[in-house]
């Protein structure tokens, strides 16, 4: 399922990145880079997916110049479990490990029911700005930190969900369909509504909808805090991914690898 996760992640960004003004995709043999200049400090929307060590080695020096020219100060490279040579390459090039989310997968036939929680009204068509705002608030980001990065969420392959409590946006998420897999992204809960079971029940409904659309599996990358939520619904761990950050330290990958 790691291959399915990577393929879906790559397609997810191919749709999302160019939808933002100035956003674009760079394709090289075995390497794809996504740029979102409207969110220059958000590495999660300025990132690189690669298929093999050689593709990363050959493409990394160029990417530093490309991101710098786009005004992006924080970008990162995804690695998968077992890609030790790529990790060493990134360390030599000056990248630092930003985070290690858990790759997770679920057969939708094995979806479990969540526990009860606070009642909410389900909105299947919220404005993308509501998704943006909730993610900024949940992640303690300044308003506007994500810029127009979520403009692509209007594409029909995305499915937006928002839980409203007493009319207020309380929790949100997005799913993205690719083949028979639906990827879960941008899960966020308003801080004052956290730990009340909203995200689990909202995601359960989104996955029921995905199953009814003919999706057979779901993948996601979980924070440490989110793993309990996802395992409760039936997701299983696949191993930790690496998010290798470049944030303009002295030198460049081209110099470091020379």
TrEMBL record:
Residues 121-258 form the N-acetyltransferase domain. PROSITE patterns: GNAT. Transmembrane segments: none annotated. Keywords: Acyltransferase, Transferase. This is GNAT family N-acetyltransferase. It comes from Conexibacter stalactiti.
